[in-house]
Design brief:
- The longest helix is centred in the first third of the chain and has 26 residues.
- The protein is globular and about 60 Å long.
- The strands form four sheets. Strands 1-5 form a two-stranded antiparallel sheet. A two-stranded antiparallel ribbon has the order 2-3. Strands 4-8 form a two-stranded antiparallel ribbon.
- It has three domains: about 210 residues, Serine Threonine Protein Phosphatase 5, Tetratricopeptide repeat (Alpha Horseshoe); about 40 residues, no CATH class; about 80 residues, no CATH class.
- With about 450 residues, it is mainly alpha-helical.
């Protein structure tokens, strides 16, 4: 669901309105068991209320993935959104307009969604802290889940904002007017440090938690549905953060506590699930083949640059019956990664963990181990091992890094990785520009509502 650009993003009022309902025409306080007040939730939530908060947070985690992947995929030149009704996808977002992104751009909608997820996580955790309905060990299960979720949402926003930074703190929910006092923006480096701190704190809490979560866990977390196994997911995210910090020992340490399995299925990992059930949502990234309604198409080099026999190409794109042409761009291949509108979407999986392991080994000078890990991905994708296909690469660190980035390109296509990978290796200038005067942005512009807020409420 997309949210209005003009709302105060960091206040996350929308998230609260979905959690707690009230009427602007109320003249006296009435206790409604169906729509409890914020105060009652934060003061002493019941087990039923905590269950609802937990389910709601899991649902909210899915919000923002479409905008996040469409925008990052477009800037990273993986895909083009060929919309004839909203041409800014092929003008403003691709950098063909003078001045770049507009101050009020609509391409920051994922920022709203992930910010609301953060606020939901904080409300859930504080409600658990103050509840007498559950034990301390059960509270730790909720604390660990919420800190992990908040870190996931923060990292998503930080990757888009980059050197703009993000707000890393909210003030105490129990303080009057706290929702009108968001913390200041901090640098990219400081934000990564805080996200890693939250993940480490969450891992400690999960280690001290009850055997089962104190709320229902959805089917997408099968295999990670207890605090002990969910901690594996937490450590996978910690490895991703360490990768962005170029902390290679940290990557390997976190991976050793994650669900990394060099001999296991590449698809293993938690997923977001969807359904057509009333009140739920369908997979927003699913599109029918040959659609003429805002098709998302692959940038042509994804197909032509692929090594012959790479099965990831046919698994992720499908040739259109008639190429889509719009504003000077031609899309001959639809993005077709999901078979139906209820297909699950991977959050993070063993394939990415193996690629992070390979990168950390290469960057640590362990070239043979890095090459062996890349071979796991190559062979599973229908390609020959490096020693056969590219023997010169095996003992060369620079060439192995290039190979690693290429494997990430195909394994993690349209998952919000390519733009960030090329940015952290200072390779944005190598991305293709298929339109005259196009440019590749380094980061998104700070949301206009955030700028306005700080102007009117200086720290």
């Amino acid at each position: 669901m997309k949210h209005s650009k003009i709302k105060l993003n960091i206040l996350l009022i929308g998230g609260l309105l979905m959690l707690f309902s009230c009427s602007i025409f109320e003249t006296k306080k009435v206790v409604d068991p169906n729509f409890p007040s914020v105060e009652s939730i934060l003061t002493n939530a019941t087990a039923v209320q905590l269950n609802e908060l937990g389910v709601g947070l899991q649902s909210a985690m899915r919000n923002g993935i479409l905008a996040f992947r469409e925008v990052s995929g477009s800037i990273g030149r993986e895909v083009y959104v060929l919309s004839s009704v909203e041409t800014t996808w092929t003008t403003e977002l691709l950098g063909t307009t003078n001045g770049g992104l507009s101050l009020t751009t609509g391409f920051n909608s994922s920022y709203d969604d992930f910010s609301q997820t953060r606020r939901r996580a904080e409300i859930f955790m504080r409600s658990a802290n103050n509840s007498t309905a559950i034990t301390e060990a059960q509270k730790n299960s909720i604390r660990g889940f919420c800190n992990t979720t908040e870190a996931y949402a923060m990292l998503s926003n930080l990757n888009m904002q980059y050197q703009n930074g993000i707000r890393i703190s909210f003030t105490d929910l129990n303080a009057p007017g706290d929702m009108l006092k968001p913390g200041p923006f901090v640098s990219y480096t400081a934000a990564l440090t805080e996200i890693k701190r939250l993940l480490d704190l969450g891992a400690t809490q999960l280690s001290s938690a009850s055997p089962a979560f104190a709320f229902p866990v959805t089917s997408g977390w099968a295999g990670y549905s207890t605090p002990a196994t969910y901690r594996l997911f937490n450590r996978a995210l910690a490895a991703r953060v360490s990768m962005y910090q170029s902390d290679w020992p940290g990557v390997l340490s976190a991976l050793s506590e994650s669900f990394l399995n060099l001999n296991g299925p590449l698809a293993t990992g938690p997923v977001f699930t969807f359904s057509t059930t009333s009140g739920d949502m369908i997979n927003p990234m699913y599109q029918q083949q040959n659609t003429t309604s805002i098709p998302v198409v692959a940038q042509a080099l994804f197909i032509s640059d692929a090594e012959p026999g790479d099965t990831r190409v046919s698994a992720k794109v499908a040739k259109r019956t008639t190429p889509r042409a719009l504003n000077g761009l031609i899309g001959a291949y639809d993005v077709y990664m999901y078979n139906s509108n209820i297909s699950p979407v991977s959050i993070i999986r063993n394939e990415e963990l193996i690629l992070m392991y390979a990168e950390a080994q290469i960057q640590s000078g362990q070239l043979a181990q890095g090459a062996a890990a890349l071979d796991i991905i190559r062979v599973a994708s229908g390609l020959q091992p490096l020693a056969v296909a590219k023997p010169a690469v095996v003992g060369d660190k620079a060439m192995l890094i290039t190979e690693m980035l290429n494997q990430r390109r195909y394994s993690l296509f349209y998952e919000g990785q390519r733009w960030f990978d090329m940015r952290r290796y200072n390779l944005l200038n190598t991305l293709p520009n298929d339109l005259p005067n196009a440019m590749v942005y380094t980061q998104m512009i700070r949301p206009f509502a955030e700028v306005q807020w700080d102007e009117k409420n200086p720290q």
